[in-house]
Write a structure and sequence with these properties.
The chain has 179 residues and is mainly beta. The protein is 7% helix and 31% strand. It has a five-stranded antiparallel sheet with strand order 1-2-8-3-6, covered by helices on one side.
């Protein structure tokens, strides 16, 4: 008997395929969505050539879709922001790829530099703004895919939900997108 464990494995465990999980084609857990965002962030060749900066409106591009999720690439010139909002029934992962963004919530303000990630649950209200003098780029994974982005009123005590909702909020890559 082994003093560390009563279980001993004889032979090569990798030769027992029914004990191994098959790799998933698409993410399905929060950790896997965070991993997807990290792997996309690390592979600049997949997204850097797509980035555009537009001083008149926030630019975005849908980078990828899968069963029940979407990945969006957004650029932020100095001064651009999302306005206070939430993401309806969608959870998400926000990853800053280049530059710095500021996230404001009812709990306070947080600077997010390149590489920073925020994971949020449905209904999480925030505002994302580029408060710097340099452009920024971010990656957003939404699951399920983003179908609404309720806007909130600004207040000194935090964001208050309004009735304005954007159904199909990211329908075409030429308009403005959420964060």
């Amino acid at each position: 008997m082994n003093s560390d464990s009563d279980l001993q494995i004889a032979g090569d465990i990798l030769e027992v395929p029914h004990l191994l999980q098959a790799p998933r084609e698409h993410p399905s857990t929060v950790a896997e969505f965070v991993g997807l965002a990290r792997s996309l962030a690390a592979d600049r060749a997949q997204w850097a050539h797509l980035v555009r900066y537009d001083a008149t409106t926030r630019w975005y591009h849908r980078l990828r879709t899968g069963p029940g999720y979407e990945v969006w690439l957004l650029s932020w010139v100095p001064g651009q922001g999302s306005g206070p909002h939430d993401h309806g029934p969608s959870s998400g992962v926000l990853t800053v790829l280049d530059g710095e963004l500021t996230e404001r919530t009812a709990r306070g303000t947080r600077a997010l530099g390149a590489g920073a990630q925020r994971v949020f649950a449905p209904g999480y209200a925030h505002e994302v703004v580029n408060d710097t003098l340099e452009p920024a780029v971010s990656l957003h994974v939404y699951f399920p895919g983003l179908t609404e982005m309720p806007m909130h009123a600004r207040s000194s005590t935090g964001a208050a939900r309004t009735t304005a909702q954007c159904a199909g909020v990211l329908p075409d890559p030429a308009g403005a997108a959420g964060a």
